[in-house]
Amino acid sequence: MLKFLVAESETAEDRAERRAHVGKSAGESYAATLQQLRPDASITIAAPADADAVVYSPDAIRRFDAVFITGSPLHVYEDSPEVARQIAFMRNVFASTTRAFGSCAGLQLAVAAAGGTVRKMPERMEAGIARRITATDAGRAHPLLADRAASWDAPAIHGDEVERLPADSTLLASNAVTAVQAAEIRHDGGVFWGVQYHPELAPGEIAAALRRQAEALIEAGLAADEAAVATRADLLDALQHDPDRRSLHWALGIDREFAAEARRRTELSNFIAQVDQRRP
C-alpha cells in the first residue's frame, strides 16, 4: 500500500474560506483526487504553515512513499512565520529524499526552498485556463509529461510565478504567459516534480476560485466586470457536469486535454507511476 503525505500550503484561515466555497480545503481536495487515482493508498494531510502543526523531520517524511504540496494564496516571497514554516518543511522534504510533487504554490515553495526566486507576476495573472503549454526539449523526454499532447491547456489560477529556477533544475514546460510551467528540481538529495497549473482540480473548483477572485481578475484586465467572470465560471461548472458537450468545448476554446478528467490528471498519474516503480 502506498503512503502519501499531502501538505497544505494554506493557512487555517485560507482553509476555512475554501471550505466555505467548495466544501474542501486544498489538501482535502488533493487527497480526494489522489484517493480516486489510487483507492488503495493511505493518505495523511499535514498543515505545515500552522504554528501548532506537527513538525515533520526528514526521518518522519521518509516513512512516506511520496509527498504532495498543494496550491494556495501563499506568497513565498513574503517574510512571514507561515512562509518560513512552509519553506522549512519543504527543505525537510528534500533532505528526506522522498519523491515530491507540487502544484502552483507547491512548485513555488520548492523553488524557494532550493534557492530559486518567485515574484508577483508583472501586470498580469493566469486564471481559469493556462493556454498552449508546451514541453521543452527536456520536457518531451521527461516521464512527468509522458503522453502529453504537443501543446495542452490546464486548469490554472495564479498571480505569482517562478522568476528563477534553483541550481540543478530542469525546465520542462512553458507557455506565453508563464515561463516556468513545469520543472524538475534536485536539491539536498531529493527530487521534486512540479507544475504551475492544477492537474488535481476539477473545473468546478476553478470556477469557484474565479468567483472568489473576481475583483483581482477585473483589475488584471482579464474580465470587463463581475458578470463576465460569472459567465466563464458558469461554463466551467457546466463542463464539470457534462465534460463531453462539444458546445462547451467551443465556448471555452478547449479540447479533451482539458475536458477529460484523466487527461487533466496526466502529470499526477505519471508521478504516481514513477513512485510505484521505485518502491522496493
Quick recap:
This protein is an alpha/beta fold and 280 residues long. The protein has helices at residues 12-22, 26-37, 58-61, 81-96, 105-113, 137-140, 203-212, 214-219, 226-241, 246-252, 256-259, 261-264, 266-277; strands spanning 3-7, 42-46, 66-69, 99-103, 117-120, 126-135, 151-158, 160-164, 169-174, 182-187, 190-195. A hairpin with a 7-residue loop joins strand 9 (169-174) and strand 10 (182-187).
Topology:
Elements: E1 3-7, H1 12-22, H2 26-37, E2 42-46, H3 58-61, E3 66-69, H4 81-96, E4 99-103, H5 105-113, E5 117-120, E6 126-135, H6 137-140, E7 151-158, E8 160-164, E9 169-174, E10 182-187, E11 190-195, H7 203-212, H8 214-219, H9 226-241, H10 246-252, H11 256-259, H12 261-264, H13 266-277
Parallel strand pairs: 1-2, 1-3, 3-4, 4-11
Antiparallel strand pairs: 5-8, 6-7, 6-9, 9-10, 10-11
Helix pairs in contact: 4-5, 7-9, 9-10
